[in-house]
Amino acid sequence: MEDGTSRSLGSLAVTTPAASLCDDDEVWQWDVREGCEVRQILDRVADKWSLLAIALLDRRTLRFMELKREIDGISQRMLTRTLRRLERDGLVERTVFPTVPPRVDYALTPMGRSLHATITALVGWTEEHQMQIAAARAAYDERERVAHDGA
Length: 151
Description:
The chain is an alpha+beta fold. The protein folds into 2 domains: about 1-35, no CATH class; about 35-150, Winged helix-like DNA-binding domain superfamily/Winged helix DNA-binding domain (Arc Repressor Mutant, subunit A, Orthogonal Bundle). The chain is built from 5 helices and 5 strands. The strands form 2 sheets. It has a 3-stranded antiparallel β-sheet with strand order 3-5-4. The longest helix has about 40 residues, at about 110-150. Residues about 1-25 have low confidence and may be disordered. One of its GO terms (molecular function) is DNA binding. Keywords: DNA-binding, Transcription, Transcription regulation. It comes from Beutenbergia cavernae (strain ATCC BAA-8 / DSM 12333 / CCUG 43141 / JCM 11478 / NBRC 16432 / NCIMB 13614 / HKI 0122). InterPro entries: HTH_HxlR, WH-like_DNA-bd_sf, WH_DNA-bd_sf.
């Protein structure tokens, strides 16, 4: 095992970089490799479709087609996959009503609602820094253009 590597609860090797210290100097033990459960959960909840679905469902319970109409660019297949994954992870609750035609509602679970607070913080950070990010992108693009033109 490498220096700075320990065993996590799931028996995966965990490398703890020095840069990942908490305020109280505890080391975060987060394995960034594909097999890590934390990474798998982050991949699920931080993808663009999940973020949008969670944001919309925080407002109110919605039916499938309401979600599809509200989320620009999402296909029916991708929305189905996204909702199933969020349901599997315990973030979204799917309720089927025995009507004709069947009515299916989607709502956030309490755990899903707790995630929305984190998403709101991320959106706030994005809004606060969007001008700096736009400037950084423009500077990068200009450097790339000059490098490409000079080559």
